[in-house]
Amino acid sequence: MPEDHPHQAKKRRIRHFRPIFGQSRLPAMAADVPQTGLLALVDELLLSIIDQIDSRDTLCRLAASCRRFQGLTEPYIWRTLLVTNGDRARSIAAALDIREARSSYIQDLSIRYPDHSKDGIQELNHFIVLMDKLRHLTIESPCPNNSEWKDDVEFDGWTKIDYTTLLEALPKALKELDIGERLHAFPGCMPSNDSTTRTSQPAFLKALIRQADSLERLSHIGGATQHLPRKYSTFDDDSARLRHLSNLRSLSLGIETMLLTHLQRDDYPASLCELKVNDVSWANNLRGGPEDTLRHPGRVLRHCTEVVKGMSRPVDLSILFSNPNTEQILSTIPTANIALVLQSIIDGPLRTPMYTLSSLLRSSNRHLALLTSKFSSKHSYIPPYMYGEEVPFEERFYDANHFWRVCGVNFRVMDDEMFVEEVKKGPKMVCTPCRERLGRWECFNAGDGSSCIHCERDSRIDGRDVECVYDVDTVAWGNEVD
Ligand SMILES: [Zn+2]
Ligand SMILES: [Zn+2]
C-alpha cells in the first residue's frame, strides 16, 4: 500500500538512478495525462518500490507497461546479466545497440556458454568495453574437459571473447576479477605456445594496471604447469608491477602463477592484506606416484615460505589444498615403524615445513591457515569452475592461533622438541587404549592426564568414544623403542 512506502524507503537505501527516459523525453505526456494509483507517486517513491522487486520477470512486465516505468526499471533489469548461449548474446547486443545508456546499467556480467551454443557470443565484444559501470565480470570459455573431446577429437572451442582487446579496453571500474587459464590439457587440446597470448606475461599485468584505482580482489590461475611459458626473469619494465594496483586488498593465486613471483620479489601494494595460494596446478600434475604425493604438501609449504621470506611486509596467508583428505596432507601420526621411512621420503618430519612457515608469519604478526576443498556431491572438479559445476566448500584444518593443532589433534607432545624434553623429566605415562592396541611406546601424551594423541585423534576424527586411563610405565624414557 502506498502509505507504507515512505517507511520502507527509510529502511532501505534508495539508489539514485536517473530516470532518463521517464522524465526527459516525456514531460508533455506526464503533464497531460492525469495519473492515479502508482503513477501518481513521485519517482523517488516508485524507485523505492522497484528496489524491493527481486523477480526479473516482474521488472520486465513493469517496464513493458508504460514508458515511465520502463525508464525507472531498466537500470534494475540490466544491472546483472547472465549469458549462457549465443542467441541470448545476440538479443542482448541488439537491445544495447538500440539504447546506448543500457550498457552503463550493467554492473555484473557473466558469460558462461557451452561450445555448441557459442555462435553469437562474439556480438558482445563490442559492448563490454562500453559498460563503464561494470564491477563484476565472469567470462568462461567452452571447457575441453567435456567428454566429446576425450576421443581424439580436435578441440576447437576457442573463446569468442577477445581477451586481449578486452583487458586493454575494460572500463576502469573493476573491483573484482577472477581470471584463470585451464589446467586440463591433452593431445589435440594444448594451451597456446605463443607466450604473448598467455596471462604469465608482463603484458597481462600492464593490462590490469588500467584497473589500478578500483581493483580490490584478484584471483588468478596461470594454467597447467607443464604448459606454462617460462617465467620472465627480469623485472625491468616498471609499468608491469603488481604494486601499481594501489587498492588491491586480496589476492588468490595458483602456486604456479607469475604473480606469486612478484610477491616473492617484494612487488605488491601496501594495501594488500591477504593472500590465498592454491596448490591445484601442482597437485594436478603429480605423476611420480605415492612418494611424490607424500612430498607434495612439504613442497607447497616450502615454496610459500620462500615467497613470504621475499616480502618485506608479509600478509595473512591461507593455503588451499585440493586434496580433500586432511589426514593425508599433514596430520598422519607416523607409527614408530614407518616414521623413519616416511621422514626419509619427505626430507624430514611431516609437519615441520608448516611450523616453519607459521612461525615466520607469526614473527610479523601475521597468520597462517591451511584449508582443504571438498565437494558435497560425489563429483569433483578442478578450477576454473564452469557453469553448472559445483564449487567446492573450504574446510580449515590448521589455524596458527592453535599452533600445534592439526585436524583437531594437538601434536605438541610429538612435534615440539623443547616441550617433549620437559615431558621427559616426569615419569613416562601410557594409556590403556594405546597399551592394548599399539604397544606402550606409541602413547604420546603430556604426562598431565590430558588426552594422548592417538585417543584424541580417534575421538575427533573417527568419532570413537575413547578415554585415556594412565599407568606409570615401568620402562624408562629413552628405552621405549627396542
Ligand atoms: Zn595413548
Ligand atoms: Zn590415550
Describe the protein.
- By secondary structure, this protein is of the alpha/beta class.
- Helix content is 34%, strand content 13%.
- Helix 5 runs antiparallel to helix 6, helix 12 packs across helix 14 and helix 14 runs parallel beside helix 17.
- The longest helix has 20 residues.
- The protein is elongated, with a radius of gyration of 29 Å.
- The relative contact order is 0.06.
- The site of one zinc ion (ZN) has 7 residues, from helix 20 and helix 21.
Oligomer: single chain
Query: What percentage of the residues does DSSP assign to strands (E)?
Result: 5-15%
For the largest beta-sheet, the strand count, sense and barrel status come to: 10 strands, mixed
Total strands: the figure is: 14
Mean pLDDT: 82
In this entry the ligands are: zinc ion
Can you count the helices?
A: 21
Q: Helix content range of the residues, please? A: 25-40%
State the strand order across the main sheet. 1-2-3-4-5-6-7-8-9-10
Shape: elongated
Low-pLDDT runs of 5+ residues are 1-32
Rg over alpha carbons: 29 Å
N- and C-termini, Cα separation: 85 Å
Structural class comes to: alpha/beta
Blueprint of the fold:
Elements: H1 5-11, H2 20-24, H3 27-32, H4 43-50, H5 56-65, H6 67-77, E1 80-83, H7 86-98, H8 102-105, E2 108-112, H9 125-128, E3 136-140, H10 163-169, E4 176-180, H11 202-208, E5 217-221, E6 250-254, H12 258-264, E7 274-278, H13 280-283, H14 290-309, E8 316-321, H15 326-331, H16 336-345, H17 352-362, E9 368-374, E10 393-399, E11 405-406, E12 409-410, H18 412-415, H19 417-423, E13 429-431, H20 432-437, H21 453-461, E14 470-472
Parallel strand pairs: 1-2, 2-3, 3-4, 4-5, 5-6, 6-7, 7-8, 8-9
Antiparallel strand pairs: 9-10, 11-12, 13-14
The protein binds zinc ion (2 copies).
